Give the backbone structure.
Amino acid sequence: MNATMEQRLRDELHQFRQDGIYKKLNYIDSPQAPRVTMEGRGQIIILSSNNYLALSNEPSVVRAGKDALERFGAGTASVRFICGTFTVHRELERELAELVGTESSLTYVSCWNANEGLFATLTGPDDIIISDRLNHASIIDAMRLAKSISKCETAVYEHSDLDDLKAKLEASRNKRTRYVVSDGIFSMEGDVAKLAGILELAREHDAVVVVDDSHATGVLGTTGRGTAEHVGVLGEVDIITSTLGKALGGAAGGFTASSAALTDYLTQRARPQLFSNALPCAVAGSALGAVRYLRSHPERVTALHENARYFREQLLARGFKPLEGETPIIPVILGETAKAIQMSNLLLDEGVFVTGFGFPVVPKGEARVRCQVSAGHTKDDLDQALEAFVKVGTRLKLI
């Protein structure tokens, strides 16, 4: 690296620190759980993890990963279409498809790869992708990639605004295929897509609906089957992408679920499939164990919903103003990025890890601390966290 580039990077990092947006990495020295050991601080209550069902350290899930590691080895050493497809991949894909209500599914090393592989493979210059404004960065980058490679068009509708979506669909009626893409749960807001309305509009306009259900798989619905189950349209979504790295054990990996024809086509043409090693078998094994655990323990989903409801209600009772919602993502808006980072740091001093987010992750003026509750949190965990919120919130004159 030349000296000019090195200095530019150092200058920008210095500015990050000055602006209060520099992100310090915090090291955990125990399994991901409701309480962890972090950098010698002892037991810290984690309210920032995607481990919604507390399955990443569930003994049966860990054992399933170990069994796959011992049976299949440390790595696949190949892409899927050469010699990287193992029986555990096919078992996992069958059970994922059943879980989310589709005919078939195809695993990737991440949901980011699944999103990249989807649009760049399926679209052409006569197609358009219409996206919710607050969709995840992986969808945004997947659209940019598709536009660059396939020369498709893209459009954005205002967040959860079905009238604006309808206008975008009507304006693009000359397109060969119109893809409407939305998060299931929006990760920074914690709200749920208006999926029933999206599907109704899509049917009226012969459009294809794509839902990234990464924060909803294992989370929404009475049995954790995702946004479609939550709103009563299970089996009606054309294409679902999601992750194995959150509620389903939290290791890694992602998938695309749809018709058998679509997943077979992606197997033949999607570049992240063709040119990246297959998901490690140990990860596929633990994810399969998580799916099976979820199916036999729906009470874990119920516990998650109850914890989320309790924590949101108690924040309100103590004078905070979390965004309205019904998911385990509970953002508390603070406004300034520096204040969100400050509150996060002070909460950590009180034994609670909550991440502060500011621009460019969220819009300017909407910085927040984002709480994420899990099924593994006890009432004592949540009450201790609430006490810390009151102490820090009072100190910062937020309540």
Notes: The longest helix spans residues 299-317.
